[in-house]
Amino acid sequence: MRFGRDGSGSGGGVRLTARRRAVLVALSGLPGPAGASVVHRRVRADGERIGLTGVYRLLAILVDAGLVGVTKDGGGRHLFHLRVDSSHDHHLLCGGCGRAERVDAGCVLGWAETAAAAHGFRDVSVSIVLSGVCPECGRAAEPGVDR
């Protein structure tokens, strides 16, 4: 993800300061949704001097701006990720290890729009979290498999 030196870019109506940009860059380098402490470590490793509370504040601003999405894992912990599409935000979460995978569930939008229209709603935004067990946790749960 690229941002101009002046903070320009797709800012969702929010100015991209150096610290906000650092959080976005950190998120773009992660393999999937991550907790604020993981984002904090990544931002610090990239040279930004900022505390965990500051990262939480920046994440909240970026979530409000629509640049960052947030979901909860099975334990209720917030996981943050870059928003690829402002109207679709879907994840598959493992109940065993907390692994999160972004999924394309565009087919759900048609259903959601139909359901919303039936109640007089429009401009629908959809966010879905599917829970399951990832392949690794599934294998570990099989009888005779060492953990």
UniProtKB/TrEMBL annotation:
Binds 1 zinc ion per subunit. Its cofactor is Zn(2+). Signal peptide: none annotated. Pfam families: FUR. The keyword Zinc applies. This is Ferric uptake regulator, Fur family. SUPFAM superfamilies: Winged helix' DNA-binding domain (SSF46785). Zn(2+) binds at residues 94, 97, 134, 137. Keywords: DNA-binding, Metal-binding, Repressor, Transcription, Transcription regulation, Zinc. Belongs to the Fur family.
